[in-house]
Amino acid sequence: MDKEKVRTSIEEIGVIPALRMFSAEDARFAADAVAGAGIPIVEVTMTVPGALEVIADLVRHNSNFIVGAGTIFDLDTARRCLDAGASFLTSTGLDLGVVEFAVAKGVVVLPGALTPSEVMAAWKAGADFVKIFPCSQVGGPAYIKALKAPFRHVPLIAAGGVNQQTAVDFIRAGAVALGIGKDLIPQDAITRRQSHRIQELAYRYLTMVRTARGVQAGQEA
Fold it and tell me: Whole-angstrom Cα distance, residue 205 to residue 11?
């Protein structure tokens, strides 16, 4: 998928569901559920059994679905994810080799970072977004706000502990998008195949993002 379309979609939708399932079937079910709620984006983590096959399957069956690969620890895995059809690459920490590889391939990359030094290094390497992880454990929205002061031009994604109580605050603090796992896709909803429950949560998060952005616009006017 076109790099600019992927980047624009992430910015506009503002929610990236992270699939950390115990089976490939569970991951496919979760992806279908969030897509049905208006979030045609998922991050398939490499912890999912058969993750590469899941990525390839999702891409093959829906060309408009933006499927990314997450929890990438090395360059070889990054290569295999792109071969499977991933439209973006993301990691929990900063690996400049993976960032430079994605830039060279013309693929959106969202490296994980935590400190100001890591944010600066990721952005200088050509990252499209910088994913601050784990956000909640180091100050939550207040930490995002603190980073945005010197890094106003860097699009930050809040991930790690984002939930219904903090989602709006993260966006208001300056996050361009939210990476959400179990608080959007509860394991028991997967086990019970409750797609309606996952979709209701997806609607809530989408509404929170829009509401928070509306508040921002009103404050800036």
Answer: 14
Q: Is 161 helix (H, G, I), strand (E, B) or coil?
A: coil
Q: Which residues face 159 on adjacent strands?
A: 179
pLDDT per residue rounded down to tens, the chain (221 residues):
899 999 999 999 999 999 999 999 999 999 999 999 999 999 999 999 999 999 999 999 888 899 999 999 999 999 999 999 999 999 999 999 999 999 999 999 999 999 999 999 999 999 999 999 999 999 999 999 999 999 999 999 999 999 999 999 999 999 999 999 999 999 999 999 999 999 999 999 999 999 999 954 445 43
Cα–Cα distance, 96 to 78 (Å, whole number): 12
Q: Are the CB atoms for 23 and 57 separated by under 8 Å?
A: no
Q: What angle do CA 44, 49, 50 make, to 5 degrees?
A: 80
Spell out the alpha helix ranges (H) of the chain.
3-13, 24-36, 51-61, 75-84, 96-105, 116-124, 141-148, 167-173, 187-191, 195-220
pTM over 0.85: yes
Long-range interactions of 86-89: CB distance < 8 A, separation 24+: 86/44, 86/55, 86/59, 87/1, 87/6, 87/59, 88/6, 88/10, 88/43, 88/128
